[in-house]
Amino acid sequence: MKNLSFRFNIQILRTISQVLFFALSLLLVGSNRTVGTVLFALVFFIGVFFCGWVCPFGSLQEWIGKLGDMLKIKKRRLPQKFQRIFQITRYVIFALFIYKIFYAPLRARATFGEILTEGFSNVTVAALVILMVILVLSLFIHRPFCNYFCEKGASYGLFSVLRIFSLKKDASKCVNCRKCDKNCPMNVEISRTNFVRHPNCINCFQCMGNCSRKAISYGIFKLSKSNTTSQTKIYKCACAGRRSFAMPPSGTS
């Protein structure tokens, strides 16, 4: 019951945060560099907090996804081998964005922001069509834009592997039921590591709330003294072939 209570409370708190920032995005015109700097700094402490708690476009996709659940529309997930390949796309888009050769109408998140702040006057038909396709896909796929196309999420994710706080799994309590993996909207394989420092983790805490064994908690990342360097594995991240260091489940080599 305590686990269900936590799950309910944390998701209520997250929904309040999402609604609040969604409303603020309607009131605040233009970008605020101070807010952006603060959110970026938070990445080094708690990871990609922005995507799971603040981003209006991410919230909208999530709400549409919940509408799909209410309509009994089954969510589709790619097999992990394809998931890793397709998640490379948002890093490719990020690289193109950095080098200023990214075609603007494909930036669905930016298009959504322009509609919120300026209306439809400066939005091209191509950009609007792509935005609508992304939103419709949200009925069938968890956060499709966040998973595969968002250049801002990619930039935050690159630095979030250095976060101080992260999700932790108690291997002694875990029975490898993989409920955490199945409930993760960002398709992170939480069951494969004791510390979740994946660049796609958005701190939604769905894994923690759905773990009936209470094997997942949240706290400061630190290497266990009982684990030697030889026991540390390098797990492949589900993006761009990057690698991140994570403690393996106890008993592995």
TrEMBL record:
GO terms of molecular function: 4 iron, 4 sulfur cluster binding; metal ion binding
Keywords linked to the UniProt accession: 4Fe-4S, Electron transport, Iron, Iron-sulfur, Membrane, Metal-binding, Transmembrane, Transmembrane helix, Transport
Gene Ontology CC annotations of this record: plasma membrane
Membrane-spanning parts: 12-31, 37-64, 85-103, 123-142
InterPro entries referenced in this protein's UniProt entry, alphabetically: 4Fe4S_Fe-S-bd, 4Fe4S_Fe_S_CS, Electron_Trans/Redox
A Pfam family the protein falls into: Fer4_5
Record domain 4Fe-4S ferredoxin-type: where: 165-194
Name of the protein in its database record: 4Fe-4S ferredoxin-type domain-containing protein
Species in which this protein is naturally found: Ereboglobus luteus
Lineage: Bacteria, Pseudomonadati, Verrucomicrobiota, Opitutia, Opitutales
